[in-house]
Specification:
The complex is a heterodimer of chains A (164) and B (338).
Chain A (H helix, E strand, L loop, with lengths): L7 E7 L2 E7 L5 H8 L18 E4 L2 E4 L12 E3 L12 H9 L8 H14 L5 H7 L10 H19 L1
Helix pairs in contact in A: 2-5
Chain B lengths: L7 E3 L4 H11 L3 E4 L5 H6 L7 E4 L9 E3 L2 E5 L4 H6 L5 H8 L4 H4 L4 H5 L12 H6 L28 H7 L3 E6 L2 E6 L19 E8 L4 E7 L10 E9 L5 E9 L6 E2 L1 H7 L6 H13 L11 H20 L4 H8 L6
Parallel strand pairs in B: 1-3, 2-3
Antiparallel strand pairs in B: 4-5, 5-8, 6-7, 6-8, 9-10, 10-11, 11-12
Helix pairs in contact in B: 4-8, 9-10, 10-11
Classes of the chains: A alpha+beta (164), B alpha+beta (338).
Chain lengths: 164, 338
């Protein structure tokens, strides 16, 4: 049996940019993003898959980085909250979260934003019920769900307009 | 912060290669597919495998094939199962109610079938478990649910298994020395520790659902409509003749024992009958009498036992053609009817 390597060397596509990474093989994607790539926007919540605070997009799908082995992400596209704004221009979702008070303590916000982004990238023509179902895996400890759903609805309307 | 323990990692490219690695490494190796069940357990030190054998890179496990029935590769994610048009209703409803959208994008059908059993004294972090001197399932000698019990009573918490048992499905287990096909209910044993009849060197590679023209349904009890493990699952599959007489019936229960199981008596009783209110009431009583939940999951034990009768009724009335959409929406927050 091959000995366990001290470090794994891979390349990720993080927010559209090819990034070489080097990390201990037991690490989760969440740990590598925060500790080895200094992308601390993605949050540690329960670390057991129950809260959605660590949600990122892997090849466009919302997944939990706390339950993803970092060594299984070589060559994959990983989108985090840091990649949402274009320079100083906020993503429509970020602007809508600010306008509607969709962020209270802010801890669930990165996970909420990325989950909502995946939903609206697929189809911005969504009902309120579909929004609620899409974010049902994202826990808001401040319980500010109404404003979050309002914000996603408003961003969806804006993104529909932009597509026309 | 909970870190994963160290492990060696292998990424075979075929089922044969995976089976060979598994046979070579022995019980110190564990399979990982989506990782949504295993990784939290590894973080809490329930399982500390020396070697993880990943099934992610095996294209054969992602196959879907149609013939006289439908065959799903065990590596299909739960989201992928939902996107397949031919997925039978009970399996679709069960799958849609597993965990959350994020976890369904990760977890697989094979993984849900092999889901570790759950218990309030087991699904805790290492320090918590150490403080009660551990439990029978892991590192301890006493079952804290039933202290006189010699058997671990942790609960089977898979949603897809009862649905697949009702649909008369089977699973294919592949080892280094060949493969075998067994009915889904034979995959399970009523023991919270040794809950699978899968041998350590076998991989659950495929799920076969025969074409039976069943009308099927799955009803799940949980605290939150959005996201929770089942504390009761009722799956029913019926085939009707032209005169609405039941030709074939299969009723299965989940989350009320250490294994999901077929309720033979109620299944036999329903055959040859039409679903009158009286027949439904009689069948529900038979189904509920088999629900023997233990006090080791969420919600009140006695209420959970009582409600089995109601849930069996929802399932049978829905299959009779009653409009159960409002009830399903209230309980499952889901519009899915098929």
């Amino acid at each position: 049996m091959a000995a366990i390597p001290e470090r794994v060397h891979l390349t990720y596509l993080v927010n559209g940019e090819e990034v070489p990474v080097s990390f201990a093989p037991y690490k989760t994607l969440l740990e590598v993003l925060r500790e080895d790539l200094n992308l601390t926007g993605t949050k540690h919540g329960c670390e057991l898959g129950e809260c959605g605070a660590c949600a990122v997009l892997i090849d466009g799908e919302p997944k939990l980085s706390c339950l993803t082995l970092a060594l299984e992400c070589g060559g994959r596209s990983i989108q985090t909250v840091e990649g949402l704004a274009q320079g100083t221009t906020l993503h429509p979702l970020q602007a809508a979260f600010a306008d509607h008070g969709g962020s209270q303590c802010g801890y669930c916000t990165p996970g909420m934003l990325m989950t909502a982004k995946a939903l609206l990238d697929g189809n911005p023509n969504v009902s309120r019920e579909q929004i609620k179902q899409a974010i049902s895996g994202n826990l808001c400890r401040c319980t500010g769900y109404q404003q979050i759903v309002d914000a996603i609805e408003s961003a969806a309307a804006e993104m529909r307009g932009a597509r026309k | 912060m909970m870190r994963l323990p160290w492990f060696d990692y292998r990424a075979p490219r075929s089922i044969a290669e995976a089976a060979k690695i598994l046979a070579g490494e022995g019980p110190q190796a564990m399979l990982i597919a989506g990782g949504t069940d295993l990784l939290p357990n590894m973080k809490r030190r329930h399982q500390t495998p020396k070697v993880l054998v990943s099934l992610k890179g095996i294209p054969e496990l992602k196959k879907v094939s149609n013939g006289s029935g439908i065959v799903f590769g065990s590596g299909l994610t739960l989201s992928e199962i939902l996107n397949i048009e031919k997925t039978p209703t009970a399996l679709r409803q069960a799958t849609a109610q597993i965990a959350t959208a994020h976890l369904r994008n990760m977890g697989t059908l094979g993984g849900n079938l092999c889901l570790d059993t759950r218990c309030t004294y087991y699904n805790q972090n290492y320090e918590w478990r150490k403080a009660i001197d551990f439990c029978l399932k892991k590192d301890g000698a006493t079952c804290w649910v039933a202290t006189a019990s010699k058997r671990c009573v942790a609960v089977s918490s898979t949603d897809t298994a009862p649905a697949l048992i009702a649909l008369n499905a089977s699973v294919v287990l592949t080892g280094s020395s060949g493969e075998r096909e067994i009915p889904v209910d034979a995959l399970y044993r009523n023991d919270g520790i040794e809950y699978l009849s899968r041998r350590p060197d076998e991989i659950l590679t495929a799920i076969k659902i025969p074409q039976k023209n069943f009308k099927s349904t799955y009803w799940k009890l949980r605290r939150r409509g959005s996201f929770d493990f089942p504390i009761l699952g009722v799956a029913v599959a019926l085939r009707f003749s032209s005169g609405n007489i039941i030709q074939d019936a299969r009723v299965a229960l989940g989350a009320v024992a250490s294994r999901p199981f077929l309720v033979e008596k109620a299944s036999e009783y329903l055959k040859g009958k039409a679903l009158s209110d009286d027949v439904i009431a009689e069948a529900c009583a038979m189904i509920a009498s088999r629900a023997k939940p233990m006090d080791n999951t969420d919600m009140d034990l006695y209420w959970r036992k009582e409600v089995a009768d109601d849930f069996a009724g929802y399932a049978l009335r829905e299959l009779r053609g009653d409009d159960m959409r409002a009830m399903r929406m209230r309980i499952a927050r889901q519009e899915l009817t098929g």
